[in-house]
Design a protein that fits this description.
Layout lengths: L1 H35 L6 E4 L4 E8 L4 E6 L2 E6 L3 E4 L23 H40 L1
Antiparallel strand pairs: 1-2, 1-5, 2-3, 3-4
Amino acid sequence: MEYMMLIILIVMMAVMMFYSSRKAKKQQQERQAFRTSLTPGTEVITIGGLIGKVVEVDEQYEEIVLDSEGSLLRFSLQSISKAYVRPAYVSDDEVDENGNPLDTDSPAQIQSDDSTETESGNDDSETVVEETTVVESEEPSDETNNK
């Protein structure tokens, strides 16, 4: 019985090691394919966080030259992390009060719809407050008359 558990444990570890090495090999191939596909003009980011445009790729020595704001820097190809994609800028005028982006197709319609709902919402809330105030003001006068 003990031998069976030991065999199952060894088989499970071997399967995990096989899948782990397979995944690592696949990731290494993807990184290598990315690095060989680099061409001048591509924006990249290094593992250290430096962002620059590729100026020259020397595959013989596995080196790359980057232009970062006018400075030419030489790196090993292994230090290139990924292609740099600049995040989209969203101004405060393009988001609602919750920080969600507005629909860019018809911003005028959205603003007019919001203002209509707000105005009707304020009228209802004022009416409820007035009714509550009236009810509260009548109750103390009834108690005063009963005493």
